[in-house]
Fold this sequence. Notes:
By secondary structure, this protein is α/β, with parallel strands linked by helices. 48% of the residues lie in helices and 14% in strands. Strands 2-1-3-4-5 form a 5-stranded mixed beta sheet, sandwiched between helices. A 3-stranded mixed beta sheet has the order 12-16-17. Helix 6 crosses helix 10 and helix 7 packs across helix 9. It is flat.
Amino acid sequence: MKKTAIYCRLSEEDRNKKNRTDESESIQNQKSMLLQYAMEKGFEVYGIYSDDDFAGADRNRPEWNKLLSDAEQKKFDVILCKSQSRFTREMEMVEKYIHYLLPLWGIRFIGLIDYADSDDKGNKKSRQINGLVNEWYIEDMSDNIKKTLTNRREQGYHIGSFALYGYLKDPQNKGRLIVDEEAAAVVREVFALFVSGYGRTAIAKALNAKGVPNPTEYKRIKGITYKPSKSKIGTLWRDYTISDMLKNEMYVGTMVQGRYGSVSYKSKINKPKPKGNWIRVQNTHEPIISTAMWEQSQELIRQRAKPFSTGEIGLFAKKAKCMYCNYTLRSSKNRDRYYLKCATKHTAKDACEGSFIPVTQLEQAVLSELKSLFEKYFDKAKVEERLMPTQDFADRIAKLKSSKEAYEKEIAGFSKSRQELYKDKVKGLIDESEFIELSRDFTKDKEKLEALVNGIERDINNLELKAVRAKDRKQIIAEYSRVERLDRVMVERLIDFISVGKRDPETKQVPIDIYWNF
């Protein structure tokens, strides 16, 4: 008796649900249909996997991933779905699982209403066509959703999951914002302090001293879903939080949306859009800040803009971190000298010991350790021997490619031999059982050769990667063994990040840990 796993999925919320914890009517119908089919075919039901309210292109479906994990462990023999699209709408996933991994694991896939059956070699093309149609459906649906959301944004409706700090979603008017007076009072205080002469760090310090929760902590206190911070320091006000607030036009009643856009309809990764592409609609909600105060604050921001931070990227920008709280060190300037310091020390008393180091001192420390590393590990006499493999990469890759071509010819020969075998069966030279047995032998030999080809391709890729890395290491040695000054390109290439501590009052030394990229 074959064991079958039943998989059900619903992509949209069922209107007949009493609440979100109830199982939808559609899911129940799918289960009934598939259980009836399993009973008629004499399948033993191993388990039922059900994802409610998940899209077919979502690869993070919990039950779907559990199904695949159990399939890899070969806990059942058949996966039974209402249709191929219930399993996945992505052509890539159709090829990966239905056409490759499931057969490799010895598991049959059946889509009931669209007759998708991985044991039926004759309908593979129809399964691929269904996969393409489903892929087009996802793309079209994505485009339609984007157009709808863009249209809503252009009409001034709020489309975000959460309202901006200082506002709440209007429960009576979907897509509109209302003022949250408790948080809005903090926003007004931030702007008032700024126009009265306080800097961003001083404002953050003042709020932390008063025990005012930052926006993330405020959400937690109010019971709003959020991503919790992993540390107490993460709940403090920071200078960049103040900076973002001071530049946010939403606080004067202008809805600003569309700052980010997805990379593609297959990815949830968003990238920033140019400011000119943002969607701005004025007078969509009640302002928290007056126009006069907004203009005054923006003029102060322009006046306080530091020349060294407007175009040139700092030597260790985003590379130097505080040894105590792991926050990125901020750049400052005093009497034409540049420094790196941890802002946490200045925004909250006793929150962090506070890292501090002049940029020139950190540069010299990096150069000194770099020189020491080259002297210790890259002996000029042995460097070629250490970095170059005993056999030439090009020769090894060429030999592997030659073997691969030979195996591929054999595979092509098997296909031709099977065609000839089929002709012999049609002519009556061999009977059905002989054809099946010989065909099975051909298939096994062909699969062994295909596995060898796949292994050779992996070996070729690994060798090519090693050759590139060896070349990169040699180039690093040639370029940087006697370097006397650092530039931004060198820092990006050589350094992952640098952990900086506080100067020891006795030794006068600043603890530094450098994490290299090589």
